[in-house]
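Regression check, ribulose-5-phosphate case 241:
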Amino acid sequence: MSGPDFAALKRAAAARALEFVHDGMTLGLGTGSTAEVFLELLAARVRGGLKVIGAATSECTAARARSLGIPTASIEELAPLDITVDGADEADRELNLIKGGGGALLREKIVASNSRRMVVIADRSKLVDRLGRFALPIEVTSFGHTVTAARIQQMAQDLGYLGLLPALRISEGASFLTDGGNVIYDCSFGTITDARALGRALKAITGVVEHGLFIGLANTLLIAQSSTEVEVLKPVAIRDA
Ligand code: 5RP
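Current build output:
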């Protein structure tokens, strides 16, 4: 028996996100394989006459958008953006996310924070009851990064996340460097009991630039359950409005 066709699921979620895009909008363009499918579908609409302009969340996305013919400008020129469409490594039903698997978490958070709306696209494997199955990416300045990692480890222990060993992300035999020239530690906290508290504690450590917890940023989560069914989730406040 063959497994799920994740390419088809990503395409379904990306296609659904296009319904949120209208002529004249400014867009935050996400990073990762799901966001890239969105770019490809968006490019087809641009070729058909749709007028949009995007701010990319990574150098990789900026290059891909340009090669596809999607007009781009900087976040400084475009903010506040109408809508950001981005993927996620994990999402819960309250629309809390873990992001940064592709290493773009800092720019992704800046762009999402400067958008009126964030639409997250993902296949069903990303939906979890509680965040923490995916190791949390934490972006740290290169200077002194090992001592910063030791402080992250100590903080985790103080909060009751026992046994955490921050893992320096390696790419092609060297430290992975973000677009901002920082390194990333992937941190397996296990089930995250209080994401806001953990996010605050991480930001309080000097040397931590950003973490991949996106709390209260997403407005809409599009989860492809199959190639033809996309579940639309909204945060409680919006659901009740
Ligand atoms: C990049 C990200 C991506 O959105 C996340 O890693 C999901 O990627 P993919 O769609 O390839 O699974 O946060 O920093």
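Comparison notes: The two ends are 43 Å apart (CA to CA). The domain at 6-126+216-226 is CATH 3.40.50.1360 (Rossmann fold). No diff flagged against the previous build.
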